[in-house]
Amino acid sequence: MEWEVITKARRGDEAVPNLESYDKARAEFSWEAARAALDGLPGGGLNIAYEAVDRHVAKGRGDKLALRWLSKTGERRDFTYANLAAESSRFAEVLRRLDVGQGHRVFSLMGRLPELYIAALGTLKNGSVFAPLFSAFGPDPVRQRMELGDATTLVTTPSLYRKKVKPWRHELPDLRNVLLVGDEPPVEDTIDLATAMAECDGSMPCAAMEPDEMALLHFTSGTTGKPKGAIHVHEAVVAHHATGRFALDLHPEDVFWCTADPGWVTGTSYGIVSPLTNGVTMIVDEAEFDAERWYAILRDEKVTVWYTAPTAIRMLMKVGPELPQQYDLSRLRFMASVGEPLNPEAVVWSQEAFGRPFHDNWWQTETGGIMIANYAAEPVKPGSMGRPLPGIEAAIVTHDDGGAPEVVDAPMTPGELALRPGWPSMFRGYLHNEARYRKSFAGGWYLTGDLAMRDADGYFWFVGRADDVIKSAGHLIGPFEVESALLEHPAVAEAGVIGVPDEMMGEAVKAFVALKPGYEADEKLRKELLGHARKRLGAAVAPRAIDFRDVLPRTRSGKIMRRLLKARELGLPEGDTSTLESGA
Amino acid sequence: MTPQDIRAAVIEELENIAPEADASAVPGDADLREELDIDSMDVLNFVTALHKRLKVDIPDRDQPKLLTIDGAVAYLQEKLAARTG
Fold it and tell me: Residue A538: its chain B contacts at CB < 8 A?
């Protein structure tokens, strides 16, 4: 079905979009000029935290509201830029006193509490590396990522610590400090963050870093093996800042709400860094999705720019278009979506329900910032991720394994989405996995692993993943990680995990297991396996469904053929099965 | 259905969604998402399961009313009473 292109007119006294004309902005843009939009430390050097908070204070904007935090229970806490600068300095000093140095990895594992934001900025200020984890991860993903990232320090809450970390805490040789947030009595082997911060005066200056020094470590999932730790450097802030202006149209007077959790890259790049460097007021809601609560926040906080995800948008659609009309959302100027392709129905629905369309954009953990987007001043093609940002060169390429990629120029021809390296927020490595990093580049291109097409107007359209990675509710889930957890159960002989289409989540994780002799494939065991996986992995990563099979299709070399599992599950052609082991 | 029957149904459906959890041990007024580590999709599946099992309509915007066991029991009881009455 063909969807009508949505064109927009600027209304009344609305801010002039930062990107008024796509072609002009692309022609005029240079990363050198983008660098000049930031300040750098007074004595030289660069630091994301300085650009995010301290420079606003230095320029007399310290009294501006930087972060408004809304608690689950209705409490509201405000932080000005000056407050954030002081609190993050205190946190940095806590780290310094604990001998946590530059380059050391500081992990966070907590819900969206103010301390999470202070810890992120304070870690950067100290020159240490901030590695956020999603609080709904189970103990296995938490441990694996902290091990891989050589965690020296963890900031978490007493309850998450007890549930997910305490049992194995001393098995991580580098993990020296656990800082706890909350008003509970002292917990053995941990440090109470509030007490430690009270001993610091907030005057510790920001560490002067080189542009290419490590600042952020974000984990992402691959098809095989362990998660990958994508390294981002301080210079990434140049892209965080510029892309926030172009793709989210951030103006200093905006009230901006990014609903993403900082445990995922969106919640850090656009839930912490970009809004602050752009000097806006950002809203942080501690609570989980709730349609009425969300509409009330948009209204009460007078949100002007809203960045959310397809799963949430589809849940809002499910509640219906009447609800938003009961709220005064007239301050809302720009709405954007990321995480997985936003289906055209949802774009058209938003136009009807809000009088404005959601603007889909595309990027991934490795790119550090938005690469392809629909813009405030440009027409929206429902279902398309838009066009590359100024400073970004994107192409569709085909390549044989190991061969040099060839650019596909013919419109609407599927191939792998590739980007020309060189933008500041590009990842600079997978921690401890140089080989895998090098494999991501070929013939002068970064290969994204996403399949897409480009139309004659230069708009890109998502097609699917080039590998077996599952995209569920905007998050990448590695099938191997899920299979490994299932295989730890004594009843499981083989496990294969795929993504199946899901109306809400894009894809839902589904597992197929073959049992060891002596185990009965019944409902009781199915539930036990489901519970086992959820306990280890957490609800966000664990399978939503488990099916039993007598045997799983494998290649002759013994690899589970997930592609074939998926084709059979969805009734699709089975494709090339020449490597299939006979009998499977 | 008595409130006890409804409560048993609620707990059973919760344990279908999150078999690793002991839903019967959760305080009646505690937020299920926190107590059981369930996410928004789990909540959606839980509400859908109750809808199918008890044959009551649960509009999406009522979902927040089912986020505690006591809340869910009261809500469903009212809905069931309205249906038979």
Answer: 37
